[in-house]
Design a protein that fits this description.
143 residues; alpha+beta; Alpha-Beta Plaits; 7-stranded antiparallel beta sheet; 5 helices; 7 strands; 34% strand
Length: 143
């Protein structure tokens, strides 16, 4: 079972790309990222029972629920924007899709859960760097 995960993401690139990311993927209320705008849930799954809906999201988003606990995208440094949000499990497919759509933007992600902490970097839809450290220190994965 996946654990509650805090995600912190920095997008680095041209201002036009960063503005497009913020406008395209922000929730309608401006408070965070809307995974359904990145990878839309097909209407038949939206209308299906909760279990089927969550299974689809788990497979295609990496988490069974949309992001929560965010105040939206924030300016970081020159050429960077930042967002943090909570999920159940890390939304790697969502980050990969954003990276594919905006190949010139580098995406740095940290996902922190009871299992441990991982850091990843995505460029052009490809995982460029990955580092995981288990919470108890018994496992480390780097690539």
């Amino acid at each position: 079972m996946k654990n509650f995960t805090t995600n912190e993401i920095i997008f680095e690139g041209k201002e036009s790309d960063l503005t497009a990311i913020e406008h395209r993927y922000s929730r309608d209320d401006g408070n965070g990222i809307d995974f359904n705008k990145v990878i839309p849930v097909p209407i038949d799954f939206l209308l299906s029972d909760k279990r089927k809906n969550e299974e689809w999201k788990e497979e295609h988003w990496g988490t069974k629920q949309n992001a929560s606990g965010s105040n939206g995208f924030e300016p970081w440094d020159d050429g960077k924007i930042y967002i943090h949000f909570d999920t159940v499990g890390a939304p790697y497919p969502v980050i990969q899709k954003i990276s594919e759509t905006f190949p010139d933007v580098e995406i740095q992600m940290a996902a922190i859960s009871d299992d441990g902490e991982d850091e990843s970097t995505w460029v052009g839809g490809v995982l460029d760097y990955y580092d995981f450290q288990s919470a108890d220190g018994s496992e480390t994965i780097k690539c």
